[in-house]
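hey m, so remember when u said the tokens were messed up on ur end? i reran from scratch. heres the input so u can diff it against urs
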Amino acid sequence: MSALRPLNVVVAGTGFGRVYLDALAKQDPAFRLTGLLARGGTTSRSIAAALGVPLYVAPENVPDSTDIVCVVVRSGATGGPGSELAAHFLRRGIHVLQEHPVHHDEIAPCLKAARQGNAAYAVNTLHPNLAPARRFLAVAKVAIQQQKPAYLDIACNSQMLYPLLDLAGRALGGMRPWSFGEPMAGQGGHPLTTLHGCMNEVPLCLRVQNAVHPDDPDNHSFLLGQMAIGFEGGVLALPELHGPVLWHARLHAPRTAEGRLITSGPATERLAEPSTEMLGPPPGDSWHVAFEETWPRAVLVALHDLKDSIDDPVRRRAANIWAMDVSQCWNEASQRLGMPAIIRPDIPPPIPLDALHAAADSIASTEGTRL
């Protein structure tokens, strides 16, 4: 495939597919949006018209000159035809980036179709490619070179389980072997269910809000995703997928011959390090920025990874194995958790940020005085 021209990309789906369209609107010279595949409703027609690209209402109508199709249509795991679409294009020799979640029983025929068409295929879990998550992965790699992880903590909602397990596997340098124990429901109304297990020989604690609003599945979660890796020297934490990345140095002070802790002076150099250090820039972007900038740029990272694998059989094979591992791990964890509970809560009221700042500032203003 020529590297002298941008790759022609068609996006299938106009729901979450809008994030992919926003990604291609960033004018990355490696890619060019050349069409939209949708059912032909009013929304898809207006989007195609606004973008100045053709609207295809059947996969057979997508031209063979297409290099990549981004399949952002629900897979069979969530009741959609996304995997059938992916296999159709792969058999035609068109490379496919498919949005998660995808069951491993659907990935297998997609890989067969990819071999038939000599095409590259990848499942996009999006969130591990967010800039803060990539920063977390970079730091984790360095930390693991120094020390073996002691434990891994993950907290997420049920929809984010797939990408969080992907992120965990990347952070640990692999997923296998993995295992999950019996679920422990939250007590006293606590909304998170706990699974203990192991990933890549690292003890794992997974807490999941296993509940969904059937008419509003993208809302009503207490959190998207959090992750922490414990080491002998401290804890590397990603308290929110949009950052920041934090390093919590482990407290350890020497003792005198009488058993008293030594908190200053010789042999206490490690106590001079910050107890918590932010690695990289601080967070602060709004959800508007996340939707318009952060998420689309994560899509571009996935597209570049797919592009790099097109002419590299080794990368392609590794991506295929990884996609199967992530899906199988997710499936086993999901089976342990069981079906999400159905919830129909009211719209959550916001807590005014000004009030939180005022409360924090009231403590800062009294430092150095007796309360």
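this time it looks ok to me. The two ends are 70 Å apart (CA to CA). if urs says something different then somethings off w ur setup not the seq
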